[in-house]
Amino acid sequence: MELEQFYVYTIVSPLTPEKRTIIDKHIDDNAAAFGQDVARSWHKGEEEDFLRISVEPVVIEVVFLTERVELYGAAPAWARVLFTAERKKQLTERIEEVLMGAGFVTPETLEAQRQPKRRLFARARERNAAP
């Protein structure tokens, strides 16, 4: 299975030991909701730290860079079929809850990131259009 990028969040402050503790606690507190074992491990790369979370058969990697957090995942085709729009919404809400709770984002920065990108590009084109 190949990892696929799901989300990218611009953050207001980078990963710290305190934020790592908050993330670990959130995973521990919510692991029972999966109904099976949740494994996690922290890794350090040259430019980033990342967290690998495994809930068979799904693997999620959260990459913590200085200015953003990137979320990747991999799952077999049969598991993807079960990932409905409602479940995607729930996952997004949980991720954003953890990012806010740990101080990576604020409600304002999160809301700004939810704006459709096409609209932002459309406004830029309008501004640059010749009169």
Describe the structure.
With 131 residues, the protein is α+β, with helices and mostly antiparallel strands. It has one domain (4-128). It has five helices and five strands; from the N terminus they run E-H-E-E-E-E-H-H-H-H. It has helices at 17-30, 77-81, 85-101, 107-113, 117-128, and strands spanning 4-10, 39-44, 49-55, 58-64, 68-74. The chain has a five-stranded antiparallel beta sheet, with helices on one face. Strand 4 (58-64) and strand 5 form a beta hairpin. The termini are far apart. The model is unreliable at 118-125 (pLDDT under 50).
Supply database-style keywords.
131 residues; alpha+beta
What's this entry about, in short?
The chain has 131 residues and is an alpha+beta fold.
Biggest sheet, in brief?
5 strands, antiparallel
Number of helices: 5
Would you report the number of β strands? 5
Low-confidence residue ranges: 118-125
Helicity range of the residues?
40-55%
Shape type: globular
Fraction in beta strands:
25-35%
Class based on secondary structure composition and strand pairing: alpha+beta
Q: Give helix and strand order, one letter per element, not per position.
A: EHEEEEHHHH
Q: What gyration radius follows from the Cα positions, in whole Å?
A: 17 Å
Structurally, the number of domains stands at 1
Secondary structure layout:
Layout lengths: L3 E7 L6 H14 L8 E6 L4 E7 L2 E7 L3 E7 L2 H5 L3 H17 L5 H7 L3 H12 L3
Antiparallel strand pairs: 1-5, 2-3, 3-4, 4-5
